[in-house]
């Protein structure tokens, strides 16, 4: 790493870590509200918003011009709140005096565990996507999270601090992570994956009716280890640090079309993308439209 890069990461870390600590000192609702307000004010002015607007105009034109602008504001509010909630992840729960997650679907987790099947939870970058991990833990299953490492090593430490409090551990994407994921499933542990981002060396699977490069590993792992592949839908309830999280029934591999492993894997990925699209269409303001999900976005 060059000296310039190290200096840039250091200065970036001073700001990010300082802000993280400051937000952690505030009450959860206050931190969430501030994060949302700042993001609503600044986010729509950023050049990056143009990509989100183009994506919405292309894939959800039914919203109309006013609806798209309102969705962009809601998207930034959600992102600001999500970022500000990171120092408080350990405070979220599905029960207790201040239960902030209305959770459902624990019976599917219990059934998988009783059957001795390893579990893979899948979700997308909707609402505060970390609430799926919190919910699984509340239902008695701590999850190994598959994630993308931060470029900045100082920021990476914050990932481990925040997510480490709610998960069984973190597995970085890549060859090393693939090996760790296999070892985890062999040991009967649960994995958690966010599957709505572009993977350049993935496979083309329809998403909003357009082929999108999709990570294939989840399908290969699910079939290889006969995993209970459980969808996790996460919704923010209004402009607040409160959520609804629904764990769905496991995918029925016997009902998949195609006879070869590759055909069955593609059927799994198509079903996952269909779930994600359904959730996004229902709550468009809570998804990460900024992402370059499609090849020509």
The strands making up the biggest β-sheet line up spatially as 1-9-8-2-5-3-4
- How far do the termini sit from each other? 31 Å
List low-confidence stretches: none
Shape summary: globular
Summarize the helix and strand pattern as letters.
HHHHEHEHEHEHEEEHEEH
Strand content: 15-25%
- Compute the number of helices: 10
Helix content: 40-55%
Radius of gyration based on Cα positions:
19 Å
Secondary-structure-based class equals alpha/beta
Largest sheet: 7 strands, mixed
SS elements, strand count:
9
Q: Whole-number average pLDDT?
A: 92
Fold and architecture overview:
By secondary structure, the protein is of the alpha/beta class. It has ten helices and nine strands. Strands 1-9-8-2-5-3-4 form a seven-stranded mixed sheet, sandwiched between helices. A two-stranded antiparallel ribbon has the order 6-7. Helix 2 packs across helix 4. The model has no long low-confidence stretch (mean pLDDT 92).
């Amino acid at each position: 790493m060059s000296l310039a890069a190290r200096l840039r990461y250091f200065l970036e870390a001073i700001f990010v870590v300082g802000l993280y600590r400051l937000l952690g000192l505030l009450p959860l609702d206050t931190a969430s509200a501030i994060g949302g307000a700042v993001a609503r004010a600044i986010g729509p002015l950023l050049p990056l918003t143009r990509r989100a607007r183009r994506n919405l105009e292309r894939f959800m034109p039914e919203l109309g011009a006013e609806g798209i602008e309102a969705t962009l504001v809601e998207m930034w509010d959600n992102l600001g709140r999500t970022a500000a909630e990171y120092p408080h992840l350990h405070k979220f729960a599905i029960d207790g005096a201040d239960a902030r997650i209305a959770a459902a679907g624990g019976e599917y987790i219990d059934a998988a565990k009783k059957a001795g099947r390893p579990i893979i939870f899948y979700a997308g970058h909707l609402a505060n996507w970390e609430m799926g991990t919190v919910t699984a833990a509340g239902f008695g299953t701590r999850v190994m999270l598959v994630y993308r490492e931060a470029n900045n090593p100082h920021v990476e430490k914050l990932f481990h601090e925040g997510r480490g409090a709610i998960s069984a551990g973190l597995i970085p994407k890549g060859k090393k992570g693939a090996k760790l994921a296999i070892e985890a499933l062999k040991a009967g542990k649960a994995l958690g994956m966010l599957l709505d981002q572009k993977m350049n060396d993935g496979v083309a699977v329809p998403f909003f009716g357009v082929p999108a490069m999709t990570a294939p590993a989840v399908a290969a792992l699910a079939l290889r280890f006969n995993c209970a592949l459980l969808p996790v839908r996460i919704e923010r309830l209004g402009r607040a640090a409160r959520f609804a999280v629904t764990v769905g029934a496991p995918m029925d591999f016997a009902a998949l079309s195609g006879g070869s492993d590759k055909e069955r894997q593609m059927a799994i990925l198509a079903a996952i993308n269909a779930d994600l699209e359904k959730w996004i269409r229902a709550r468009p303001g809570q998804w990460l439209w900024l992402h370059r999900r499609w090849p020509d976005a």
